[in-house]
Amino acid sequence: MYKTAMLAKDMVAASTKPLLLSILAEGESYGYEIIQKVRELSGGHIEWSDGMLYPVLHRLERDGLIDSEWKEADTGRQRKYYFISSDGRKVLKTERQQWLTVHNTLSKLWKIKPVTI
Question: Which of 8, 27, 94, 110 sits at 20 to 30 Å (Cα–Cα) from 65?
């Protein structure tokens, strides 16, 4: 059966920060849930692993763009939830504009309709 191609590693790396900040701007989340959300949103084209995700989350937390808190899950286990900080919201606004600039430039070349917000 035909399977669509995954995104190139450099595209995945470049999109990780804006994807994480965007997901966390919608509400707090934990690692596995974030991985599932990205898989779902991308239609399976972006597959993140724990080994890729957690170093990025820790870097964003160290940079003050996200915060975290341990909470008890429904199962009774402790789970680390991440949420966007006010600085993270500012950075997300900049990231969004940069990605739209790239998208709209390619849209002109590919003769498809640009996106405006």
Answer: 8
CATH number at residue 14: 1.10.10.10
Q: Decide: 38 and 12 in contact? Cβ < 8 Å.
A: no
Does 27 reside within a domain?
A: yes
CA distance 69 to 65: 14
What lies within 8 Å, CB to CB, of 18 at 6+ separation is 92, 95, 96, 99
3-state SS assignment for residue 27: coil
Alpha carbon distance, N-terminus to C-terminus of the chain: 38
d(CA 74, CA 71): 10
Residues in the chain: 117
Quote the domain boundaries for residue 15: 9-85
Domains of the chain: total: 1
Band (4; pLDDT cuts 50, 70, 90) = low
Q: Strand pairing partners for 82? A: 29, 68
